[in-house]
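Readers of this paper often ask what the protein records in our data store actually look like. Such a record has a labelled line for the sequence and another for the backbone structure tokens. Nothing more is needed to write down the fold, since each code stands for a local backbone conformation. The remainder of this section carries one protein's record, kept here as part of the documentation.
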Amino acid sequence: NRKPKAAAGSSNQPSKPIYEDISKVDVGYDENDQPDTKPKVIDVNDEKVTNRWSRYIGALGIEAVQKQASSTVFLIGLNPLGLEIAKNIVLSGVKKITLYDPKVVEPTDLCGNFYLSERDIGKNRAKACLNKL
């Protein structure tokens, strides 16, 4: 009956956690931050843009990226799936996104919606997520 040997350089003592107290990690969001209301336009002729978006342009083609950069999207529902879709649409560089969700944040929403916190309970889901997107 042989015992397994420890890997070289390891010890039997537990490793020290990265954070001693996770409650001290700041994950807050400043509710007073207002979104930039000026529309941002992706100029696909700008070399910095084409360098940054090169893989995206390579996958979709320059014409598709241009169309998407000038698109307006209306998204209904910010449940966990809807939020993930909204995040990806925003990251893809659409000109404007409108979010609609008539529901208010409930405690059960906190486990699947990474932009919500306990402070958002009772608020409209779309409004609670808007500035964070």
In short: The chain has a mean pLDDT of 78.
